[in-house]
Task: structure prediction
Amino acid sequence: MELRGLNRHQSYAYQGYAMPDSIQRLDAQLLKKELGCNAVRTSHCPPSPAFLDACDELGILVFTEMPGWQHLGDDTWKAQALQNCREMVCQYRNHPSIFLWGVRVSGSADDEAFYKRTHETVHRLDPTRPTAGARGFHKSQLLEDVYAYNDYSYRGRGSGCEPRSAVTPDLRRGYLISEFGGQQFPAKAFDDEPHRLAQALRYAAVLNDSIAQQGVAGSFGWCMTDYNTHREFGSGDRVSYHGVMDLFRNPKLSAAVYASQKTPRAPSDIVLEVSSGMALGDLPGGIPVACWVFTNAESVRLYRDNDFVAEFSPDRRGRFAALPHPPIEIQDFVGSLLEKYEGLDRAAAPQVAAILNEMRRDAMELSPLSRARMLSLRLSAQELLRMYYKYIGVLGSPTSVYRFEAVWHGRAVKTVIREPVQSVRLECTVHNPILTDGPTWDCAAVSLRAIDQNGNLLPYCSEAVQLSVEGPVEILGPSVVPLRGGMAGTYLATTGEAGRAVLHCKMEGALDTEAVLTIRCREESRA
Result:
C-alpha cells in the first residue's frame, strides 16, 4: 500500500507547542481515524513523545527529521545540528512507528561533507531504518537512502506531480513526495464554495497521481492543520491557511479527500461530504458550479424534492481512477423527471435532460450538437428555458430540497440534505471529555460548529460564542470566540482538582448548549 499522509505542525491556538500528552495523542487519532492517513511527517520539528506513542499504538508510520528549515550555518552551527541528529535517533529509535529518518535540513541546499556526516551518524546509531532528506529541487546530491521531494508543481491542471525520472538522480533508490498542496493553494474555512472545492480537488489530483506513478512510495500533503507563523509566511494575520483542518482541528472540505479514502468496515465508517450547498445566491451570477461528493460508499443516490434523479458510482477510468475511492462528480440533476412531469417519451427525455445538464455545466451555453438536437426534437428555446428554470433553477426561482444518499452493501447508510436554512444550532463537541490531572495538567479540546436543521455546517455564520465553565477547569484563551467558516474551538485546562465540569456555550440566534467533562486526579503521580 502507498503512503498516504500529511505533514503535521505541532502548533495549537493560544498555546503554541505547550500542550499536554492527551492533546498530542489526539492529533494521532485524528490522522488515523478521521483523516484515514497511514503516515505522517513531523515537518522538521521535534514531535512530542506522546504523539509518537500514539502513532505506535495506532499503526501510523512516522517520517521524522532533524530540526531546521532551509538555513545552513557555519561550523559551530553544523556541530550543533549533528548533535541534534544524534539526539533525535537516541530519543526516538525505540518507537516502531518511525520508518524514516530525515537527515537533511528541510529545503536546504546541498552540502556534501555535512550531509555525509549526518547520514553516517544516523546509520551508526540505527542501521535498521533508511534515511531521507526533503528538498525542493531536481537532481540534488542523493547521499541518503530515499529521495524525498517537496513537489509543488501542480497548478490545477495537467499532471499532479512531476515525473520521478526528472527529479531524482538515482532511480534505483526510494522516492517519495514529502510535501505538496496547501502552500500552492491556501483555503480558509470561510472562503467561498468554489475556492474550497478547488483546494479539495487539488489535493485529490496529487494524491491520485502519486499513486498512479510507478516508483513513488507515497505522498505527504502540506499540511494537516492551519498554523501560526511569522509575518512573512501567512495571510497577513500570521496564520498559514495551508491545512486540511483549521487551527482547532475542525475539518475543511479538503479533509474529506483524505477521510474518504478509508476502507469502510461498518456503516459508521462511511464518509459522505457534498461540496455544494446548492444555494445559487452564493455563486457568481447565480450560475450553478460543479458538485462533487467525497465518499467511500459504493454509490450515491440523488433525490430532488423526494423524486429520485439518478444514482452515481465512482469513475474508475476518470481523472481520479488511481484513488481507492475516487470522488464522484454529480452531473445529472434531471434524471427521469421529464418523463414523470413533462410527458416526454423514453427516447426524447434523456436527450432533453442531457441538454439541460449541459446548460447547467456551461453557464446556459449550448453546443452546436445540442442545438441540432433541439431541432430534431422540435424543442423551442422558450420551452427549453422553461424546463431549465423548473428543473435546474436560476437565481430567484423556487428552491428545491436535494437529498444525497450514500449506498453501501445495497442500502443507504448516510444522508446529506441540502435545503434553505430554517434553524441554526450550535454544536459543541469535546474530543476528550475524561481528563486526568497529574503528574501535569491535562486539557480538553473543544470544537464548536454552527449547523442547520439537517446538521450541515453553515460556513458563513460568524456569530460570537460566549463561553463559561463550572467546576475544576479553566478556559485557555478568550471567553468570547468568533465563528470563522462556521467553526471555532477552545481548550479547557485542569486546575489540580477532581470533579465534574460543565462548559456552557451561548450564541445569538441558537439555543444554549453545554458539554460535560470528568476530571480525575492522579494523586500518587504528584508525590
